[in-house]
Every structure is written in structure tokens, then in C-alpha cells.
Amino acid sequence: MRKTELQRSYLLIKRLFQTQSAVQYAKQQPRNLKGRSKSSQDWLTRQLADPYVEKARMMNYRCRSAFKLMEMDDKYKILKPGDMVLDCGAAPGSWTQVAVERTNAAGKQERAPQGAVFSIDLLHFHAVPGATIFGGMDFTTSLAQQRLRESLAGRQVNCVMSDMAPNATGVRMLDQESITNLCYEVLRFALAMSAHGANLVVKIWDNGDVPKLERDIQTYYEKVKRVKPRASRGDSAEHFLLARGFKGFPPAPT
Ligand SMILES: C[S@@+](CC[C@H](N)C(=O)[O-])C[C@H]1O[C@@H](n2cnc3c(N)ncnc32)[C@H](O)[C@@H]1O
């Protein structure tokens, strides 16, 4: 298909903007590094060189992670107006912001159905208009899950998302086991609370347990895909397992 004049201008502006901001941020050097550890200096340098950090600031997202969810949703359509969404490991709240926008949980689109977003994190974090926040709660505890169930009040969920990451101990094997356990905890809750056709997104760190987790998820969902959004840093082991079309439970053997 031939590109219209308008499309061509848009692409040109977009490319120009991307180049400018890349150059602009590549030039920025962190100041006041005195007294900071090497890892903190590296983190600051990386933040300044990262175009997603500035883009998030300009678009009022609380952190760059917003772009990971937007990218997955743009491609795989996991959220829609009217959906009930559970966001696990939600602080500081950028996935929640995206989920509120895309499910119309704040009711801003008058003609579209209004969704609802429930967000939980170990940390306390600022309210996101349109979402119900459970701050200072460990998702893996029965108390937290009971509170979520009560809030859902019998309604089923259309998308369960987990960007949860355990505090890394630095011992690879232990950290991988912890994140895999979190994924199973989310899967168990999703199976109990999801509507037919619901979606699931869980963050994983690539490791030997992932193929089994993927197979286990596949038992209950039509499609499972391992996804690495562009906004996810290339040097991190982070991936997402994205499952679509909750099938319910297979019939019990007779
Ligand atoms: C990468 S951050 C999430 C960023 C978030 N998706 C956003 O876009 O703002 C991971 C979060 O998982 C949370 N977390 C880790 N284990 C948790 C648990 N057991 N229960 C609740 N939250 C947990 C951490 O406190 C942390 O805030």
C-alpha cells in the first residue's frame, strides 16, 4: 500500500524525534555521583541514557515499565474496555495506569463499558484514579488473596497480570526459584478467579524451570507465548509468559 503524505510526515517527525531524544540523552551525564556506590552510578547513567525513561516522564507514566505492557497489549490485545483486571506487583503503578486507560476503569470513555482494576503490592504506593489499590500486602498470603476475593465480590477477572519480582539475593538459583514460585501463585489465583477466555501475563527470569511453567499454563489456556517487549532491557533475563483464552478446567477423568 502506498503511504499517504500524512503518514510520510508522521514517520519523518517520529524518526526525527527519536533521533533527537537519543542524542540528547546519550549526552547527558549524571551529576552529584560523589559518595554513591558503583552500582548506583551505573543505574543513574543507564536511566539518563534510556529513552523510555524520558518518554514515561513526558506521558505521565510512573515508570518505563508502562511501555512493556502497552507493547504487549498493542500486539496481543489482552485488555479491552469493560475488563476486570488484577495487577500483581503493581508499585509504583505504571501498569495500573495503562490498565485503567485500556479498560476504561475511570469511566472516561462515555460510550465504552467501564472496567475495574485491582492492584496489589508489598509496597504502599499512590492511588491511581480508577483503580482499587492494596498497598503493603504480600500477594502470596491468604489474607491478601481473601481481601482481593472480597473486593471482586463474585465477579470474574478478564486479565491477571504479574510484574512481580522478588528481592534478588544475587544467588541465581534461589532468585529463579522465587520468581517461578510467584508465577505459580499467580497462576493458582488466576485459575480460581478467571472468566472464560481470560488472559494471563506473568514475568519470568529465563531459567530451566520456565518450559515446565509454560506447559502447566498451556493446560488451561488456548495459547501461551514467551514475549520479550522491546522496552524490556536487552541485558536482563526478564521475559513474559503471555497466555490467552482461559479454557477452564479439563474435565475430571471418569
Ligand atoms: C518491577 S516492579 C513492578 C512495576 C509495576 N508493574 C509498574 O509498572 O509500576 C515489581 C514489584 O513487585 C512487588 N512484589 C514482589 N513480590 C511481591 C509479593 N509477594 N506481593 C506483592 N508484590 C510483590 C515489588 O514490591 C515491586 O514493587
From TrEMBL:
One of its GO terms (biological process) is mitochondrial large ribosomal subunit assembly. InterPro entries: RNA_methyltr_RlmE (IPR050082), RNA_MeTrfase_FtsJ_dom (IPR002877), rRNA-MeTfrase_E (IPR015507), SAM-dependent_MTases_sf (IPR029063). The keyword Transit peptide applies. Keywords: Methyltransferase, Mitochondrion, rRNA processing, S-adenosyl-L-methionine, Transferase, Transit peptide. One of its GO terms (cellular component) is mitochondrial matrix. One of its GO terms (molecular function) is rRNA (uridine-2'-O-)-methyltransferase activity. Residues 61-246 form the Ribosomal RNA methyltransferase FtsJ domain. Its main location: mitochondrion. It is found in: Mitochondrion. The active site is at K203. HAMAP family: RNA_methyltr_E. Belongs to the class I-like SAM-binding methyltransferase superfamily. RNA methyltransferase RlmE family. PANTHER family: RIBOSOMAL RNA METHYLTRANSFERASE, RRNA METHYLTRANSFERASE 2, MITOCHONDRIAL. This is rRNA methyltransferase 2, mitochondrial. It comes from Drosophila busckii (Fruit fly). The lineage of its organism: Eukaryota, Metazoa, Ecdysozoa, Arthropoda, Hexapoda.
